[in-house]
Amino acid sequence: MSKFTSHESDVLVVGAGPVGLTLASELTRYGVRCRVLDKDAGPENVSKAIVVHVRTLEVLAAMNALAPVLAESKPLRQVELHAYGKHIGHCDLNGIDSPYPHPIIIGQNRTEHILEQHLNSLDIKVDWQVEARGFQQDESGVTVTLRHADGRVEETRTQWLIGCDGSNSIVRKQLELNFEGDRYENEQFIQADVKIRWTLPKGASYLFLTNAGYMMVIEMPDDIVRVFISVPDPDPSNDTSPTLSEVQEALIELGGIDAQLYEPVWLARYRTSHCQADRFREGRVFVAGDAGHVHVPIGGQGMNTGIQDAFNLAWKLAYVIKGVAHPELLDSYNAERHPVAVALLEGTDKAYRSIFNKSELFQKAARLLSPMIIQMESLQTRIRNTLEEVTISYKDSPLTVDVGGSSGPIAGERAPDAILVRLADKETIRLFEVFQGTDWTLLLLSGQAMNPLSYRNLTAIGKTITDKYGYIIKPHLVVADIAPPQLPEELDWNGSILMDSQQYLHKKYGASSACLYLIRPDWYIGFRGHPSDTDKLMTYLGGVLI
């Protein structure tokens, strides 16, 4: 056995799946020295997770990694619903308030290849076939023992260690974090990526609830469908892959429709559980993604939630490493993302158990009442927003301060997008383009009433912020008028002016009068207030930034 010491890194990421690749890419984008490794030989070669939800598409856009994902994907706009032998309606997944109004379908193998290529474009390569075997942390860093494929043992020193190494995470296990939950007994999951001939039309995906089990048929790129089935498990010891005929027979039974499956790409059988770590951080070590939470695959949110864990953690860790934020900022990672995992596990478990409700009364109600209930627009909107993860809120986070100022979104919520015109070059842009980068964004909204005094107050606030935090906060005066404001010379404002002539942004943000919105680098609202709340804003920033 040989031992050697490599160069130190700021962050060592263990696991190069979608979560680890996202984290490494984001840390690198923020200028952090990052190393990422994985015990496997390369990216995933089967599809596994196939749904990318709207909030994750926004994350990929912020990373500048979205275009190739969209190019290789298929839109998921509608799911037709069948319950106990009756077509009860459809779930419309199109119409989210985002530049990306619906989820997409793309195999995890393709997602991982794209994310690895994105990481490579940042001059970072994954160390494949390198396994983390253990670590020791102290006040100044973490010493990690690695084993290479040829048997060499390496000890490397890093400031921070992050386990993105899946549900069997060695990082989580060595931290001795509780990973509590329950296994779904007497149920097995069967899935197949295949081609299909049947009498149901293309252009939608399908869900079937029956006495015998649950099934989804989801359209994928390349004229493939994913058949996902949950049925009773007569032999839990059977871990062999299902045959194509087994999947076809189950599909015909559950769907009640003639179908032929052919040209299978992937067949799999597995069991699952729902578990979560009691916390996502211990000292200089974090866990993210499946290393911290796993759930039953209802809604396809597992990979998405993990990617969003990484997006939440990366900017905070980068800010602390670069010395522009107080170390306490890192406490907000667990405070924000652990409740998201708890809610996800509770929601998916409840949905799964209700699907397999054997009550005759429940099934009768599903057949009779669901056609009316499912088409209620309020319910459709709630389903869409929940599945697409755009309503996840950090309102109880230590990083959130809300003192009013508008009737729109509150601090802790995702910042909505809007269409604006950049006054400097008269270019139409989206607000999400304004957020692009690694800085915070301060929106100084003039208010729909357009009181000229507002300009004086808002530009004074913008100058105050620029003078102290101009290196990391970018203020923008947002004007709710069709004509540019006539700013008095004494205002001396040469900063960004965004024209909201149709008041799209002001209406979305409920800004009837002048107000402030401070947007974090992950596009969440950190602070909301009136122009008179400048002292509170400065106090907030002083508690976060250095």
Describe this structure in words.
By secondary structure, this protein is of the alpha/beta class. Helix content is 31%, strand content 29%. It is built from 14 helices and 30 strands. Helix 1 links the parallel strand 2 (9-14) and strand 3 (34-38). The chain is globular and about 80 Å long.
What form results from the Cα inertia axes?
Answer: globular
Q: Overall pLDDT, averaged?
A: 94
Query: Strand pairing plus helix content: what structural class?
Result: alpha/beta
Tell me roughly what share of residues is in helical segments. Answer: 25-40%
Major sheet: 9 strands, mixed
Count of runs of 4 or more consecutive helical residues:
14
- At CATH level 3, the topology of the largest domain is FAD/NAD(P)-binding domain
Radius of gyration: 25 Å
Number of domains: 3
Strand count:
30
User: In percent, how much strand structure appears in the residues?
Assistant: 25-35%
User: Given this structure, which CATH class of the largest domain is correct?
Assistant: Alpha Beta
Quaternary status of these chains? single chain
**CATH architecture verdict of the largest domain:** 3-Layer(bba) Sandwich
Ends distance: 45 Å
Outline the low-pLDDT stretches.
Answer: 1-7
- CATH superfamily name of the largest domain? FAD/NAD(P)-binding domain
